[in-house]
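Continuing the series of single-chain predictions for the mutant panel. This is the parent chain; the variants come on the following pages.
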Amino acid sequence: MHFKDLIDSVSQSKYILLDSAYDSEDIYNTILEKTNAIPVIEINPRRGSVGPVEKDNLTRWIMKNLRIRYASLYKKRWEVERVNSNMKSIFIFSFEYIYYVPHRHYEQAAGFKIAIS
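Parent structure:
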């Protein structure tokens, strides 16, 4: 399933946190066009400098600055990674092994993971 096919499922989110596999201007622009969310995308170091530099085009410069601005928020991705890890384990549908943290939306993360699997 393609990212653009899933964008409607996260259209009401305040932030969309993505790892460096989604570091592209196409993904960034899709998020801005289809949602009101702030895209916080890990910068892929293979694409050049992680920090904003003068040679960056405007979109790339903004992407890098958003990632720096929301660095503390991005650190919460460990929760999503933990859900993914648990779903890959032998207890794939046994959600009792997902440790509960108040005010987190694990069911959305799990649903999103199932939708893209």
